[in-house]
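Milestone 3.1: sequence recovery, worked example.
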């Protein structure tokens, strides 16, 4: 049985899709992060890197109702995860494309393969490496989709993406395409893949930002007062 088919423990906050005006209307992953961080209620709080927050919102909305509450234990890990290092944007986009590429539909695989090549090119430039070099993980993933990889190499062989434009447009597009590709994939464990993607990106961002790993936290402990208050309000 998939973990997403098992009912969450009693007391775990029930996350909902979309943006909510206030807690009485519901809450998504990042809105609860803003609450825990002591910020104004928002799905894009200052405590989290913008692209990481975007990924969290997309994963929250792309996960089924049955599996969404299982994301709640990772909310504390995104609080304070901020950085001006441009590698953070590139790594988030690259890890997202890696995760989605083997399971996404053929039409999305082409776009994701281009995202892998572009992200590697931007990272190589930032790190002072040869521009055509791919990471070992990128090579492994691209071998799984030879047709998409061949098309991407032809399409993007001479593409030059300025860093500012990459961070503003290409990276968010790659993340959005990846999450949509996983959420709509014809696989029985899409919820698990989305959750794994979020956790892997959080861990990678923690390493880049110099944060100590945040242990998994039972959301009933952190969000108990909020849950009790909202439960009482609904009665």
């Amino acid at each position: 049985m998939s973990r997403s088919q098992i009912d969450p423990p009693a007391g775990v906050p029930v996350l909902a899709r979309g943006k909510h005006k206030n807690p009485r209307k519901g809450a998504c992953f990042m809105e609860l992060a803003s609450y825990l961080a002591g910020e104004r209620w928002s799905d894009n709080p200052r405590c989290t890197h913008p692209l990481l927050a975007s990924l969290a919102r997309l994963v929250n909305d792309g996960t089924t109702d049955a599996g969404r509450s299982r994301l709640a234990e990772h909310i504390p890990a995104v609080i304070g995860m901020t950085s001006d290092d441009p590698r953070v944007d590139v790594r988030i986009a690259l890890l997202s494309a890696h995760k989605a590429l083997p399971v996404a539909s053929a039409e999305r695989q082409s776009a994701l393969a281009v995202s892998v090549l572009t992200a590697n090119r931007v990272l190589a430039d930032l790190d002072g490496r040869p521009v055509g070099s791919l990471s070992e993980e990128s090579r492994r993933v691209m071998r799984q989709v030879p047709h998409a990889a061949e098309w991407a190499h032809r399409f993007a062989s001479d593409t030059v993406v300025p860093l500012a434009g990459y961070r503003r447009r290409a990276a968010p597009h790659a993340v959005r395409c990846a999450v949509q590709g996983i959420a709509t994939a014809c696989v029985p464990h899409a919820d698990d893949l989305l959750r794994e993607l979020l956790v892997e990106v959080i861990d990678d961002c923690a390493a880049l930002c110099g944060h100590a790993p945040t242990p998994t936290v039972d959301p009933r402990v952190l969000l108990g007062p909020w849950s009790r208050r909202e439960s009482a309000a609904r009665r």
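Residues 125 and 214 are 31 Å apart (CA to CA). The chain has eleven helices and no strands.
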